[in-house]
Structure of ABC transporter ATP-binding protein:
Amino acid sequence: MLELRGVHTYYGHIHALKGIDAVVPDGEIVALIGGNGAGKTTTLRTISGMLRPKQGSVLMQGKDISGIPAHQILQMGMSHVPEGRRIFPQLTVRENLEIGAHTVTDRKVIEERIQEGFTYFPRLKEREHQLGGTMSGGEQQMLAIARALMVNPKLLLLDEPSMGLSPLFVEAIFDIIVELNAKRGTTILLVEQNAQMALSVAKHAYVLQTGEVKLSGNAADIAEDESVRKAYLGED
Ligand code: ATP
């Protein structure tokens, strides 16, 4: 589905990604973990076209998409749920979902997708006419994911979906991630500070450190790795 080949990304003179190689196979959940400032968000931004790699390439279904504008990449079937969610606080749940479908012209399709979103997130249906900004953090995260689904993506990029949520909501969000993958067949690249949760749902994982892949492989093996346990799973 997705491949990164020797990707280097800069913010001005700051060399944030230093040659990332990674593969996200079709239909899988892949976790991207690492400490603060490791480059996880930058990786997602580079994949979805918000940033342009200075060197290397990003391939989606074999096609080089590096340098293609973000709105075109979205139309190819990739949806990015950014860190901090960024829903529209002054718009209702329904209006937020409709905005997510701005590239879809058929009203009937839009309505079908809103209803499909409600099957994954019944809580959003209950709050269909509530303003986004008055929802709880967990509900806003659900809305952000449901909004990203409005374009019927093949690939979903999720940036720290558990951030700031209570343990119960973290579980609910991870259950939905697994369900979306199993039922819709959506391929998911999941960036998380909550390494334990991410590794429990992913098949493969990458550990980033200061802009480089420090470790990669089977998620279950990475969860057992001693250096990972010490650094990211809170063990001494
Ligand atoms: P966190 O878990 O703390 O969000 P991260 O792994 O997502 O971290 P990034 O946000 O990708 O890390 O940051 C990677 C590096 O790029 C960091 O050194 C950061 O300071 C730098 N960086 C990120 N955004 C910018 C920016 N807009 N301008 C300049 N430097 C940036």
Q: What stands out?
A: The chain has two domains: 1-77+153-236, 85-152. Residues 85-152 form one domain. Residues 11, 14, 16, 34, 36-42, 193 surround adenosine-5'-triphosphate (CB under 6 Å).
